Amino acid sequence: MQTTIGDVKNYLNQKITSMAWQRIQMRLLPEFNKRGIFLHAITDSMQIDRDLMAAINTAVNTLYNESLPSEFLN
Amino acid sequence: MSIKILRGEFYPDRNAYVAAGEPAIFHCHHYNSYLQAVLLDASSYIDGIETLLADSAQEIAHTQFKAFYGSNSLNEEERKKAVEDYFKFAGFGKIDLKGIDATGGVVETSSDHYGVAFKSKFGINKKPVSYFTCGYLAGAIEAIYDMELGSLEANQDLCIGKGDEISRFTIIRSNNRKNKLIASQQEGNYQLHSLIQPDTTKVDYTAIRQALTNMPLEGAENTGLIDAFGVLLTRHYANYYCNISYGFLDLFTTQMGIDQIEIAKELMTEAGHVCAFNTFGGIMQSNEWNAMIKPMLSSKEDWIHGITAVVNSFGWGFWEIQELTDEKIIMKITGGYEANAYLGRYKEKPSIPISFLASGGVAGLMNLVYVLDLPGRTPVTLDENLYREISNKPEFFKAKQLKCRALGDEFDLIEAVKG
């Protein structure tokens, strides 16, 4: 089953820190936008493709020295 | 008589510290570093953010020291001393300008607030982080030598924030500047008001403000840092926060569109919340709080009044509680520094309410008292785990700005509601 925006958002804000998801969004905004995902219209059920998930993981690593769980990345 | 050092004074009728025309406010290293970090999050795709961070400081330092030297006749050495001394007084660190002349030079320091702050909050950074210090040095040195704003620029190679022993800044003539710098708006559109004592609490607002505005909070002699209440405090420039925040909004909306502005608003408000959690939380556990304020407190509502009274000594304008229950607060802010600065700088109204720090701060004080239950749990260690714990609770307070002076209202009004 493909990982959704809601899965990643909940994981980051609950396990990493408050507003971690928002910082990732800010950091990767062009990546979201080029997939047709715009923040004013974003929903938790939207799915995240493999490349975007890899970019999110890199940003999480850069900002928080953490990695997303493997089930999100496989 | 010539005054050789710059300090400024507190103006009770506007709840503001002003030094040579420039409003100064208290903020902690958590806010300083978090706000800069979230702005830099967009720097890979928005041009001009790093420049904005340095230029804003340069505009303010130049304006301030030009005003100071204009009313005080000082020689070159005395001017340099005033710049070094104010940097230390404000908690920005220690600098030595002896190697500087009108063509620039090199400044090295083993104590720089932004470098120390970033390292403390985020660990080792990959790039230098002291954009503020770059701008401060360039602007102040221009003023020392009666040069035009924008004549110099500063670059940083070594940085405490990226693990170097020292921070090093090279100041050079600016020959290829693309952007025009603008003098600081100084006090902007400030409001006169008076401190009102609420009749629902025994917390003595006037006594607390009187005591705190007279506390000797200034950088230590050896480090130039203000280590107080468990944080590194600064007597920072109100206009610096505002000009980097609103300048960022301009860059963001120009390049990414207005529709996605909510993310910027959320993160700048979060910076205020982080500030409240750490600074208000630290103050509410301090010796000063326990000795002076705690004896006045008999309920959680009193704790909210106590910290609101403290806020009225920060230079943030007048904070008055309009409504308070364990589920909601409405805070009226008169002469808030965010609106003062916005109205002093911009002709156009903003597209959204702009009191981000105040919004985060109001929610933050409710979360400390009602969600964390600081009155019942103190002493607690205010760390990332605790912050995550309270922010994930369903009763976590969130803020909304109901009125905004920059949008034409008479004052700012912030509501924070549970859940």
TrEMBL record, chain A:
This is Uncharacterized protein. It comes from Fulvivirga marina.
UniProtKB/TrEMBL annotation, chain B:
This is Uncharacterized protein. Gene3D superfamilies: Trafficking protein particle complex subunit 3. It comes from Fulvivirga marina. SUPFAM superfamilies: Ligand-binding domain in the NO signalling and Golgi transport. InterPro entries: NO_sig/Golgi_transp_ligand-bd.
